[in-house]
User: Fold this.
Amino acid sequence: MVGALERVLVCSPRAAGWDRPERVARWRDLGFHHAPDLGAAELQHEALCHQLATAGAEIVELSPANELSLDAVYVHDSSLPTDFGLIVMRPGKANRVHEGLHHAVSSKPLGVPTFGTIAAPGTTEAGDMVWLDSQTLLVGHGYRTNAAGIEQMRALLAPKGIEVISAPLPYGRGPSECLHLMSLISLLDEGTALVDLPWLAVETVELLRPRGFELIEIDYSERDTLACNVLSLGGKRLLAIEENRRTNDRLRRAGFDVRTFPGSEICINGSGGPTCLTRPLQRG
Assistant:
């Protein structure tokens, strides 16, 4: 999750239907804070893509599809690439169930085969999945990823020598909130994690510390603006939302090169930061 980002899948607001009135009308049901502003969202998404390209990443655009919803712009959640191919997620949010198959179809021409597919009654979202190292996948157990989904992930990856560890997630503000494991922890490099420490389970923290991770805490005044949602570009380079100035300054003081883009509309409105807006397909 922290190697140099070489190829990344994104979904533009227009591809996700932010220009289609029938989709925009569902913004309350999907948990957006206000009706999306397409113009502002497009400008901010373009700024995101500019930073990704400047960092050396090849950008792959997800094509539009009738089954997508506004949430499809948060492209990270619906698939998990592995060294063996793509695992198609089955999101816990009902309007997103079709996204994973669309990812699989879009990734096949890129030489990324499908390795596995999560099936009912399992639910999984990749925003709940953090690779602690190449052989250890930490999976958040909450409202979006359930026990059956975690067991299916374990069955897929155990034969490949990968340990899948379940990490309990807090109740937070309830099932309507988008609370992923990656809402509470972002890996910055091989030994450093940005964390929302009070909201992490004790057993998760006790798992990280013996592995030698240094934990940098967010500025808690920026929790609601997704301060913990930071994308590693590799080589001590990070991509963050510019609104979270205090947390970004902490990261700079810790020796990281923090690049930013405005996220008021594309990120904060729909509760998805730079990790959510990107599906890394290849890292160095």
Notes: DSSP finds seven helices and 15 strands in the chain. The two ends are 10 Å apart (CA to CA).
